Amino acid sequence: NLKKFKPDSIIRKKERLKYKIDDSATVFLYLGRINTDKGIKELIDSYSLLNRQDCFLFLVGPIEIDIQKQMIKKDLSNRIIYIPYTSTPQEILQLCDVFCFPSHREGFGYSIIEASALEKPVICSDIYGLKYTCIDMKTGLKHKVKSTQSLLEKMKFALAEPKTMKQMGKKGRIYVSENFSEEKVLEKWKEFYARLL
C-alpha cells in the first residue's frame, strides 16, 4: 500500500526524538524475526566492527536467540536498540537511513519491499529469495550470504556514500510502485485467473 508506506519527514523526526537519535546520525535497521537464520549475528558483528559513535543499529521483531550477551560483550548496548514488536512498521522504518536484511534463506523479502516503498536503500544478502526484492547497485547493495566481512564492506560504503544510498532509496520506491503496488499485484492476479478460466 503505497499510500500507507510513503516517506514522511514528520514521522521520521518524531521517531528519532522518541529514541533520542540526532538527525545527523546514521541508523541501520533490521525488521523481522530475530534468529540465526536471519543473519543477526553477522549484522551485530559487522556493526561492531564499524566502531562508529555516530551510527546506531535498530533490531525490530520477536527475539528467538540470546543477543544480549553479544551486545554487552562488545559494549554496544547503548547504540543497539532492540524493539520487540511494532504494529506500525511504516512508522519505525521512517527513522532509519539504511534497511539491513542479511537473511540466510528467504521465501520473499516482504520487509524489503516495505522499506523500499519508504525510499530506504537496502543492504541484503545475495540469495535467491531476495533476487527480485532488491536490485544490486540500483535499489540497494547485496553482500555475500553469511559473510560478516562482505556485509561490513557494504555498511562502510553506505556511511561513505550517503548521497548514492539516498538515490538508491528513491529508485527503490519507483521499483516497488512499478512491480509490487497493490494495484499492480491485483491486476496480475486477475490476469492469472482469467487465463485459468
Shape verdict: globular
User: Order of strands side by side in the largest beta sheet?
Assistant: 3-2-1-4-5-6
Helix content: 40-55%
Number of extended strands: 6
The oligomerization state is single chain
Distance between the termini: 28 Å
Structural class: alpha/beta
**Order of helical and strand elements:** HEHEHEHEHEEHHH
Taken as a percent bin, the fraction of beta residues is 5-15%
Tally of contiguous helical segments? 8
Measured on Cα atoms, how large is the radius of gyration?
Answer: 17 Å
Average pLDDT confidence is: 91
Major sheet description: 6 strands, parallel
Detail the poorly predicted runs.
none
Structural commentary:
This protein is an alpha/beta fold and 197 residues long. It is 43% helix and 14% strand. It is built from eight helices and six strands. The chain has a six-stranded parallel β-sheet, with helices on both faces. The two termini are 28 Å apart.
Topology:
Elements: H1 9-18, E1 26-31, H2 40-50, E2 55-60, H3 68-73, E3 80-83, H4 89-92, E4 98-101, H5 110-117, E5 122-125, E6 140-143, H6 148-160, H7 162-179, H8 182-196
Parallel strand pairs: 1-2, 1-4, 2-3, 4-5, 5-6
Helix pairs in contact: 2-6
Q: Which terms would index this structure?
A:
about 15% strand, 6-stranded parallel β-sheet, alpha/beta, single chain, about 200 residues, about 45% helix
